[in-house]
Design a protein that fits this description.
about 280 residues, mainly alpha
Length: about 280
C-alpha cells in the first residue's frame, strides 16, 4: 500500500505548490508562474536523483529507446493540459469545464488499459466511477452556465492530463533492471528537463520578459519549484507501484474531501460517494 502513502504525500505537496504559484501569478503571470514548477523544479529533481543514487548505490540506468516516446508523451500532454486549463479560465463556464476535467481518472483507466494493459478489475472500475461521480457532484453547482464547447474543452483537458499520467507511468515501467525508486526519479528528471527546455524556448520567442521576471523572482520561486519537484517525485513513485487510474482517483478524492471547508447537502452527497469510492479502491488493491 505504499502507493497510497506516496499519493497522499504528492497531493499534499501539490496543494502547497499551487498556493505558492497563486502568489507568484501576480508577479509572473499565469504562464510564468506555471513555468516555475518546471524550470525551478528541475534542479531540485537533480538533487533528488543524486540522493537516490547515493542511497541505493546505483549508477544511472541507460534508458532503452522505447522509454523516450513515453516520457515525451507525458511531458507534452502535461503542457497541453495546462494550456487548455489556461484557456478554460477565461470561459464563463469554467466551473463546468473544471468538473469535466475531473473525469480524468475514468479516462486514465481507459488509456491505461489500451496503451499499457493495466488491468482494471470490476471493483476498481466501480471505485473509480463512484469517486469521480462524487468529485463532479461537488464541483458543479445548480444553475451553473454550460455549453457544448465547455464540455468538450473540459473533456479534452481531462484527456490530456490522463495521457500525461499514462505516458509517465509507461516511461517508468520501461526502465527495467533498476529499483522502482530509481526508475521513477530518472523519469521525473527527464520529464522536467523536456518541459523546462520546451517552455523556455516558447517564452523566449513569444514573451521573453516573463523569463526575465522569473529570474528576478528567484527567491519566492525556489519554494514553489521545490514543492513542485517533491510532488512530482511522489506522483511518479506512486505510478511505479499502482495503475495511474488508482493514483489519480485517490488524489482527486483527497483534494476534494480533505481540503474542502464548506458543506452543503449536495457536497455532503458527493463526499459520501468519494468515501465509498476510496474505500472500495483501497479494498480492491
Amino acid at each position: 500500500m505504499l502507493w497510497a502513502l506516496f499519493t497522499i504525500i504528492a497531493a499534499a505537496a501539490q496543494t502547497v505548490r499551487n498556493a505558492t504559484q497563486r502568489e507568484l501569478t501576480a508577479k509572473l503571470g499565469t504562464v510564468g508562474a506555471t513555468h516555475v514548477r518546471f524550470l525551478v523544479g528541475f534542479p531540485f529533481a537533480l538533487i533528488f536523483l543524486a540522493a537516490v543514487m547515493l542511497a541505493l548505490g546505483q549508477g544511472l540506468p541507460r534508458p532503452p529507446a522505447i522509454f523516450w516516446p513515453w516520457v515525451v508523451l507525458g511531458a507534452l500532454a502535461q503542457i497541453g493540459a495546462t494550456a487548455l486549463m489556461l484557456a478554460a479560465m477565461n470561459d464563463r463556464s469554467f466551473v463546468v469545464i473544471y468538473a469535466y476535467i475531473k473525469t480524468e481518472p475514468v479516462q486514465v483507466a481507459l488509456f491505461g488499459l489500451i496503451f499499457l494493459g493495466d488491468v482494471v478489475t470490476p471493483a476498481m472500475a466501480a471505485a473509480i466511477v463512484t469517486a469521480t461521480a462524487g468529485v463532479i457532484i461537488m464541483a458543479i453547482k445548480p444553475g451553473t452556465p454550460s455549453s457544448l464547447a465547455a464540455t468538450l474543452l473540459g473533456l479534452a483537458a481531462g484527456a490530456m492530463f490522463a495521457l500525461s499520467a499514462v505516458g509517465f507511468r509507461g516511461a517508468i515501467l520501461r526502465l527495467e533492471g533498476v529499483s522502482y525508486v530509481m526508475a521513477a526519479t530518472v523519469t521525473v528528471v527527464v520529464g522536467l528537463m523536456l518541459q523546462s527546455v520546451l517552455l523556455s524556448l516558447y517564452l523566449r520567442l513569444r514573451d521573453p520578459e516573463v523569463l526575465t521576471a522569473i529570474v528576478r523572482a528567484w527567491r519566492p520561486s525556489l519554494f514553489a519549484g521545490f514543492m513542485g519537484a517533491l510532488a512530482s517525485q511522489f506522483w511518479f513513485l506512486a505510478f511505479a507501484l499502482a495503475t495511474a487510474a488508482s493514483v489519480r482517483t485517490l488524489a482527486q478524492a483527497i483534494s476534494r474531501f480533505v481540503f474542502k471547508q464548506t458543506m452543503t447537502g449536495r457536497e455532503a452527497a458527493g463526499i459520501v460517494l468519494i468515501v465509498i469510492g476510496v474505500a472500495l479502491l483501497l479494498w480492491a488493491h
